[in-house]
Amino acid sequence: MSTRAPSAERLRDLALFRRVRDRIDREYAQPLDVEALARGAHMSAGHLSREFRIAYGEAPYSYLMTRRIERAMALLRRGDLSVTEVCFAVGCSSLGTFSSRFSELVGVPPSVYRRQAARTTSGMPSCVAKQVTRPVRNREVPAREPQLA
After folding, report:
1. For 12, 44, 45, 94, which has the most beta carbons within 10 A of its beta carbon?
2. For 91, left (φ over 0), alpha (ψ -120 to 50), or beta?
3. What digits encode the pLDDT tens for the residues 129-141?
4. Is-contact 131 73, C-beta < 8 A?
5. Gap between the Cα atoms of 23 and 45, Å rounded
6. What pTM was computed for the model?
7. Distance CA 51, CA 13 (A)
């Protein structure tokens, strides 16, 4: 059994995808879209989406929305901003899309999360609350049972 080292081109591409991911992490509240991210990496949007998914297990837009929802969760736990203010603070331009995506990832609408989080995370250090309440992308799609032949 032989193991091949990744090609120089593949390593270069992985470094580009890491820079795209880092940009999303830094600029999640900015108006970002896959086309803008692809231009910054000097590749097509389709190529970026396909290869980013292979490298990180999700498409760039899904990764961006997960970061935005994580930040929204932290802001909602603070309790001093309305859901609408949180929506715009994390870079979403549509309250409806934000609420739908939040509900998909977290399991409850942002207003319900805000009420529940105030009770469940009170007195908890913010770093622990962030880890405990982190959205799990696998909640979006129910796990399928393996098919036995």
Report:
1. 45
2. left
3. 666 565 655 444 4
4. no
5. 15
6. 0.74
7. 9
